[in-house]
Amino acid sequence: MKVGPGPRLPWWDRFPLGRYLAGRLLSAIVVVVAASVVIFGAMQLLPGDAVDVLLAKGAGSGGGTAAQKAALRAELGLDRPLPERYLDWIGGVLRGDLGRSVFSGRPVTEIVAGRLRNTLTLAAVATAVLVPVAVGLGAWAGARAGRARDRAVTVAAVVVGALPEFVTATLLIAVFAYAWPVLPAVSMLDPDASPLSAPEVLVLPVLTLVAVMAPQTIRMVRAQVAEAMASDYVRMARLHGVSERRIVTHHALRNALAPAAPLLAGSITWLVGGIVVVETVFNYPGISADLVHAIGHRDLPYVQSVTLLFAATTVVGYLLADLTVLALVPKLRTQPRQGR
């Protein structure tokens, strides 16, 4: 008796990886939308508003009559209902229009573009240094767990990781700009110049960011490599004559990177907040100076748009970490997945 083909499975059962990726992308979109609501709401809770700041600028503290305040609030659209203002703002964001700065009147996109290149350059260089340093030191220590080098790396990671970024920055300035003056204490640049044209101004900010971000990842990679090196499959590889270097790089480290990837992504996305402090300490011409100025002047369109940009960057970072885990662990690309 000829048996016909069974019922055709829906696409989400036939393509579990596609279902997982679609679910993660949808989750990322939902998180960004939720973040936009929280950011917009938080901005409305700040004491004072741009109207008070603008009027005080021209007439001194407390300047401006009630009528002037009402007229300026209407001109800026601050008298409209909150849901209407939110929809207007988020609709503009979706069209690539981040709104206009209340304080300067310039488009937020134009203001951000002038500084964003420098911030992205600093973040990219810090990430390029962070990944090999954190992974390399973690694997180097974990491959000889319990030995002197393992203890040295672990202690150093704990001590450095316990220091806030501004303390680390201050110590680096004291050592490399004053005690041993080989690097500039501040990162001064021509407004139109690229930071890469003067790489010396990047060294101390990059060292600060790496020193703050690397310790947790080093310890995670170290723990995972140490666990892998004590496993049965590593013992079997040794019995088959596989070199120790190949065991570490092709077996232990590969398995260690999967659980360490989300933590590494978290360290990289920490740049979103940590880079503001570092840019301020070193007077680096990035986006932080304008952001601090905008907060002080209650420039809500600028602050909320830049904050949403930071939030979206964080979400994308974690999404890329998930994809990295899929690339490192082949079985995760084929096994059925339950909803997360």
Structural class: mainly alpha
Q: List segments where confidence is low: pLDDT < 50 over at least 5 consecutive residues.
A: 336-340
Q: Biggest β-sheet: count, sense, barrel? A: none
* Helix content estimate: over 70%
Secondary-structure arrangement, i.e. CATH architecture of the largest domain: Orthogonal Bundle
- Briefly, what CATH class of the largest domain? Mainly Alpha
Order of helices and strands: HHHHHHHHHHHHHH
How much is the average pLDDT? 79
| CATH topology description of the largest domain | MetI-like fold
Hey, roughly how much beta strand do the residues contain?
under 5%
Distance between the termini: 43 Å
CATH superfamily annotation of the largest domain = MetI-like
The domain count comes to: 2
Would you count the extended β strands for me? 0
Q: Report the principal-axis shape.
A: globular
Number of helices: 14
Pfam family, one: BPD_transp_1
InterPro entries: BPD_transp_1_N, MetI-like, MetI-like_sf
Subcellular location: Cell membrane
Domain ABC transmembrane type-1: 116-321
